[in-house]
Amino acid sequence: MNVPTPAAPSPGAVRSPVSQAPPGTALELDRAHVFHSWSAQGSLQPLTIAGGLGCEVWDDEGRHYLDFSSQLVNINIGHQHPRVVAAIAEQAQVLTTISPAHANLTRGRAAQLITERAPDGLDKVFFTNGGADANENAMRMARLHTGRSKILSAYRSYHGNTGSAVVATGDWRRIPNEFAHGHAHFFTPYLFRSDFWASTPEEECARALEHLARVVECEGPASIAAILLETVPGTAGVLTPPPGYLAGVREIADKHGILLILDEVMAGFGRTGHWFAFDAHDVRPDLVTFAKGVNSGYVPAGGVIIDAPVAATFDDRVFPGGLTYSGHPLAMAAIVGTLEAMADEKIVENARTVGAEHIGPGLQALAAAHPVIGEVRGSGVFWALELVADQETRAPVAPAVVGAVKQGCLDRGLLPFVADNRLHVVPPCVVTPAEVDRALAVYDEVLTEAEAAL
Ligand code: PLP
User: Fold this and answer.
1) 346-453, superfamily in CATH?
2) Which of 3.40.640.10, 3.10.180.10, 3.60.21.10, 3.20.20.150 is the CATH number of 84-344?
3) How far is the CA of 74 from the centre of ligand 1 (A)?
4) What is the mean pLDDT of residues 315-323?
5) Atom number, ligand 1, closest to the C-alpha of residue 161
6) Cα separation of 295 and 305, whole Å?
7) Which residues, judged by CB distance below 6 Å to any ligand atom, belong to the binding site of ligand 1?
8) 3 state SS of 259
9) Which atom of ligand 1 has the smallest separation from the CA of 230?
10) Reduced to 3 DSSP states, what percent helix, strand and coil does the chain have, rounded to the nearest 5?
11) Is 396 helix (H, G, I), strand (E, B) or coil?
12) CA 322 to centroid of chain Cα atoms
């Protein structure tokens, strides 16, 4: 947005209105009244975060952490980017909320900035509150467009915590929530732990495609509305598909009139070093879902980018879906501020370069020194280290080892992202080479300790 850029506040200088309360009360109030996601509540001791700037956050006693988690892999532009904060503040002065039924300039501009980055023909956006409802609505569009009911998705995936999205999910979070119907799952490429007995990326790709073709045949092609895939499965381990895989999926889908939905909620908007992760692959989706990095979560937002034929289905037919806060002006202002700043400041390019020249080589050097690292995967600011107890068998390290790695990072002032037996290296896209060096030094010490304990 065209607002003057204020000087960045110095860390700790800016306090939120409620942060005037004495230190310590944040945790007390949390434990008394806040019910947390995906957790048994009794033993939780969450870290208190009071503020942040760029790649750093700090607690209410002023202890600083280098944020190599980007929280839930969403703060692509870094904490408190002044242009995004100013865009939200400017919009708040003008209009804080408006029904989705109205046209609004900020909403239109946000949709324009998103679709400008998408392939030609994907010109419309349906805005949601986050990633789960983006996937929910993409699946609904695919079902209504094709007149078919079934959605195929990967076992190694996460698509969100709502009715169909959590059942489309492959990981453990699906099992206690399996109430929606019309879903089937399949295995996707993961050479390090191949489900196809493959030993090369080419073999893994060809066999994974053969497997998908068989699943489609067995599920009944005429009943399948869409294949839903994370372009790069994120929480499942940053599993960049081998060359040709996504193009092969597209071919199978086309053969049977099935739509392809690519979930870019975590991988999109700079994370892989591209605006969209699929920019690095030879594939054109029918529907793209997004959230997180589109405005770095400064105000919750997500959405579906829709190809012309699917959009045309609803030219004369009612689309039976909507949300009170679809296209909320504060979220839209945050999108406009984020995407303009990311383009002007070449933040996606930064993610690509720092990934290729610093994070990737740095992690490979760590892997050469640490037998506990079984594999390094990734690009941009989207990396995972597989931690193994044994290089030969690739047996994952025990949960206690991962717990110690996490605590070791926190003790050294680094906020890590861990999932299963993996350490995900996922800083904001604005990360500098010096910050990468600081993180690598922490990982080095922590992994040395982990190996000593093995
Ligand atoms: N899709 C992917 C790939 C995700 O990683 C996530 C969240 O982590 C979601 C969907 C769900 O997004 P949200 O939590 O905003 O509903």
Assistant:
1) Aspartate Aminotransferase, domain 1 (3.90.1150.10)
2) 3.40.640.10
3) 9
4) 98
5) 16
6) 15
7) 72, 130-132, 135, 158-160, 230, 234-235, 263, 265-266, 291, 302
8) strand
9) 3
10) 40, 15, 40
11) strand
12) 23
Residue ranges per structural domain of the chain: 1-62, 84-344, 346-453
Which of 330, 335, 341, 350 lies closest to 270 in space, CA to CA? 350
Quick one: which atom of ligand 1 is closest to the CA of 291?
A: 15
- Cα 384 to middle of ligand 1, angstroms: 18
Query: Can you give the pLDDT at residue 16?
Result: 57
Contact 427, 435 (CB under 8 A): yes
Rg value, the chain, Cα: 22
With beta carbons less than 8 A apart as the criterion, state whether 337 and 87 touch.
Answer: yes
CA distance 447 to 371: 9
12 band by pLDDT with thresholds 50, 70 and 90: very low
Residue in this structure with the two tokens 């086309």, named with its chain if needed: 254
* Residue of 71, 266, 298 to test ligand 1 pocket, by largest number of atoms within 8 Å of CB: 266
Neighbours of 92 (CB within 10 A): 13
Q: What is the largest CA-CA distance in the chain?
A: 66
Indicate whether 61 pLDDT > 60.
Answer: yes
Burial annotation 364-394 (CB, 10 A radius, 16+ → b, else e):
eebbeebebbbbbbbbbbbbbbbbbbeeeee
Q: Which residues pair with 303 in a beta bridge?
A: 127, 290
Summarised one tens digit per residue, pLDDT across range 377-420 is 999 999 999 999 999 999 999 999 999 999 999 999 999 999 99
